[in-house]
Automatic annotation (TrEMBL):
Keywords: Hydrolase, Metal-binding, Zinc. Pfam families: Lactamase_B. The lineage of its organism: Bacteria, Bacillati, Actinomycetota, Actinomycetes, Cryptosporangiales. Residues 58-264 form the Metallo-beta-lactamase domain. This is Zn-dependent hydrolase, glyoxylase. SUPFAM superfamilies: Metallo-hydrolase/oxidoreductase. It comes from Cryptosporangium arvum DSM 44712.
């Protein structure tokens, strides 16, 4: 078996539904993604590399449907391809997309219907559909952590290939709301400080009438990190905080029985812990 990008998949929590909406994919040499050592990604029976041995991540958004509200958690990378090239790497990687709006439309959701966008963080593969000139989602407010916002508007951090583009910052800034730990920007969705990967990274605990879920953003890139939190991702801004956050998320999900929602996970973004490790959550 080899990893493939996750398909559109829905998770009904009871009066609140999460749907993974694909946009594209990321492929990277595992030795580049985990420079301190990557052999652990092969030890838990998870399919995380493609047929060429490249680490595969899905890229997309989580659509949350709750009553009349239509919420997106992150908005993919957009219709572009960004090379991921590291000096000394044996193989070059990339991340790219372009399918998000088409896949949203197939679900009967048009951009005008999105009222809220919750941003886990502002990396390029999470803000790519914010807008090129005009806002793609003209009726949406953008919720982002204050630490995240302050980090990316600094001149030394803005303008790089992995961060938000100036126009995206402008659009977000025009309708920006501040995420705070424990706040509930949407009924049933609680913001959780998960800093480490980036300085103002947030995850989201989602509570339905039947079950709950935790959207991890990039606190976890690959499901192997949920079992082995010490796996150190190349792009973590604060590696020590990122490891603590991964441990906290694993403990929270195990303690609460929440469905683990990893928008970058290949094959299946909805997962749960079992006696045998981590397995896809049975969705309908
Ligand atoms: Zn990402």
């Amino acid at each position: 078996m080899s990893a493939v990008p996750a398909d559109t998949t829905a998770l009904d929590l009871g009066e609140i539904t999460l749907t993974f909406v694909p946009d594209g994919e990321l492929r990277a040499d595992p030795a580049v993604a985990y420079p301190a050592g990557h052999e652990d990604i092969f030890t838990d029976g998870l399919d995380v590399v493609d047929e060429d041995g490249m680490l595969l991540l899905s890229i997309g958004a989580i659509l949350v449907t709750a009553g009349t509200s239509r919420v997106l958690v992150d908005v993919g990378i957009g219709d572009r391809r960004i090379p991921l090239i590291r000096p000394g790497a044996s193989r070059d990687g990339y991340m790219g997309g372009g399918a998000l709006l088409r896949n949203l439309s197939a679900l009967g959701v048009e951009p005008e219907q999105i009222d809220t966008i919750l941003l886990t963080h502002l990396h390029a593969d999470h803000v790519g559909w914010i807008g090129d000139g005009d806002a793609t989602f003209p009726n949406a407010e953008y919720w982002v952590g204050e630490g995240e916002w302050q980090y990316w508007i600094r001149p030394e951090n803005s303008g790089g290939p992995v961060g938000p583009r100036p126009n995206e910052l402008e659009i977000i800034g025009s309708r920006r709301r501040r995420l705070v730990d424990g706040a509930e920007p949407v009924d049933g969705i609680t913001a959780v400080d998960t800093a480490g990967h980036t300085p103002g990274h947030f995850g989201f605990a989602v509570r339905g009438t039947n079950a709950c879920a935790f959207v991890v953003g990039d606190a976890l890139h690959c499901p192997a990190e949920a079992l082995r939190p010490d796996l150190a991702w190349v792009g973590d801004v604060d590696g020590g905080a990122a490891i603590r956050t991964r441990r906290n998320i694993a403990a929270h999900v195990r303690d609460t029985g929440a469905v683990l929602v990893g928008p970058h996970f290949p094959n299946a973004v909805f997962m749960e812990y079992s006696s045998s490790g981590l397995i896809p959550f049975a969705t309908t």
